[in-house]
């Protein structure tokens, strides 16, 4: 079972790495990057941090989320256990923010499904994905 959780952790980390790179650069897909840029204009309007007086500029918001996903994805996939746990927390917060944003924008349930699935997998890793402590 430990091998399955390790595989899930690495694949999920690589997924977040790729989604972060897609936000930061048009090298993977110019169309996807352009779409992300246009979506983050909408996302910045309802950013959860606005409740605390912080209104991000859409381009900076896109870059911040992109870099957070790249770094946390790499650490989730290949970092030591402590950094895996921290990156899991960071990515979980990002996914909660994504779900909140999509719900506020009244997007369809299908649009919320990927973030919800990723959050569920991150929580599963957090609960069950650690090696048994040595005695």
Keywords:
single chain, 135 residues, mainly alpha
Q: What order do the helices and strands come in, and which of them pair?
A:
Layout: H1 2-24, H2 30-45, H3 58-78, H4 81-104, H5 109-128
Structure description:
This protein is an all-alpha fold and 135 residues long. 77% of the residues lie in helices and 0% in strands. It is built from 5 helices and no strands. It has helices spanning 2-24, 30-45, 58-78, 81-104, 109-128. Helix 3 (58-78) runs antiparallel to helix 4 and helix 4 (81-104) packs antiparallel against helix 5 (109-128). The two termini are 19 Å apart.
Query: What is the succession of H and E elements?
Result: HHHHH
**SS-based class:** mainly alpha
Mean of residue pLDDT? 92
Helical amount: over 70%
DSSP helix count? Answer: 5
Biggest β-sheet: count, sense, barrel? none
How many DSSP E strands?
Answer: 0
**Overall form:** globular
Q: Any low-confidence stretches, pLDDT <50, length ≥5? A: none
End-to-end gap: 19 Å
Strand content: under 5%
C-alpha Rg (nearest Å): 16 Å
